[in-house]
Amino acid sequence: MIKTYPLLLFICTVSTCLLSNCDYRKSTQTQVSTPEDTLVQIPNEWIEKLRTTKDFEKESPHLINEFYLFLYEENPWDSTTIQNWSSVNPTFVNLDTSPENELLLNIKINRWELFSVIKKINQQWYLLYSNAFGGPIANNKITIHANDPAKKIIELETIHSQTPGLYGTGIKGCFKKVFFRIENNRLKVALSVVSNHRTFDFAELHIVNAFVKADVYEVNQKNIGVHYMYTFSPGSRLQGFATYPNASFTFESLENDLFKGDFSVEYQWNNTDQAYELQDSTEQQKLAVFHSGSFLGHDFYQAFRPTLDSLSTKGDGRPYTKPIVQQILKEIAQLPKDTTCIPCGKTPPDYYQWRKKQQDEKNQRKPQDKN
Question: Which tens digit of pLDDT belongs to each residue from 141-158?
């Protein structure tokens, strides 16, 4: 079992080292490329050990312990979990014009996975990126897009869920695709999008349920093309109204879809922001709904207003669609503000973002400590 720390401590724990047999010294912090940015150095000896390991089933627990202690003062996982439910999967691949292959490191512990990118710069290995993903299942999938051999793009398909199930989130696993590029010895999170997302009712939280699926059809240095398909259906909050005397719709009618559709978008590379971005404001509204879970309320109505207004006044030929949509709009109107689930398309804070936040909080406490 994971220790009873908050989930964020899975990827960001600072305490004292519990292990007495660490083979390597703690990693050093070295400035690379820009003076304000500091990268964690990974010992060359550890990289070579990883490269020459033959039996990962046997060696994974040791490798994981050592790697975590390069980043943190304490491993957040207990030894039993690491010993019995962990694995290491390294991939060495050249992502840019450097002579040395980069290391894509996937560490699986229980139902969580840590994805890291490590690069050799000036004869030393440095951690460019590290982030934890997890949920009901752990199953990171990595694709390398090499249409430009000098600047390959990493596509990581992973699952997003801060709780392994639907309690507290309304999301029972949300698959997303995250795209990375190396720019000037830094790994950029170039784009993060939903790839397969379905909401489930719990405790009458939902006015509307949604299923969203996205297929990536183009990946290159200038564009990433994504085709979205979506379906919306009535949520559990409407079930009570179907039981009223003289109800305008039946309980069974709530099992039918409200409406569905699809559209394609082209995310374009913005060299200033170092990310793929979307320019069309209408498409941005819809994608904000898909990615944030805001289909539960006002943002859902604003993004799909023409369709919802038409269904609430004209219907679609089915006897119950019009009154169901009318009731949905009444429920949305009563919300004080948009009700959102945990973001699905958004990438959680990575290791360096967490470390900066810790340092900022520490600096804020210093004046108080003096008093």
Answer: 899 998 888 899 999 988
